Amino acid sequence: MIEIVAYNPAWPAEFDAIRAVLQEALGPLALRIDHIGSTAVPGLSAKDVIDVQVTVAALSPEVAERLRAAGFQQREELRYDHVPPGAAEDPRQWVKLFFNQPAGQRRANIHVRVAGNPNQRYPLLFRDYLRAHPHSAAAIDRVKRAIAAHHADDIEAYYDIKDPVYDLIWDAAQEWAARREGDDA
């Protein structure tokens, strides 16, 4: 069942604990470890699952081995991210490794992506845009709650509707980031 819950101020601290375990497991293989997804946006409701992105130089066997050794459960079937309309459809740009938390630990989705790929930039830009645009975050909140209310038992329908809505934010976020980068020049 898909359940959307109110923002929990404990989510950042829960992320910090997960980040520490990932950093210990991966060492310098992790170029950065970020809190992503709706739980990373203050005030935004979400599924009660901490999404984490680990940025690496390459999706090497060593990365997967170290995460499995630390107890993270790899989901081999989740190898590619959704490709937004208009984005480069080269599958190498959207590949990832995906893990869930070790048994008995706080629910988490661990997305391992290559630095510089669009699927690595997407969740960071999405998060930052919603943090800076509370009206957009409120609209996303309403959309997620409505989808969950009508499709609580159908995860495929939830994502079939949610992904295109998020793609609207992706377009706006890219324009926003380009303007910010232009302001910094």
Automatic annotation (TrEMBL):
InterPro entries: GrpB/CoaE, NT_sf. This is GrpB family protein. Pfam families: GrpB. It comes from the Bacteria. PANTHER family: GRPB DOMAIN PROTEIN (AFU_ORTHOLOGUE AFUA_1G01530) (PTHR34822), GRPB FAMILY PROTEIN (PTHR34822:SF1).
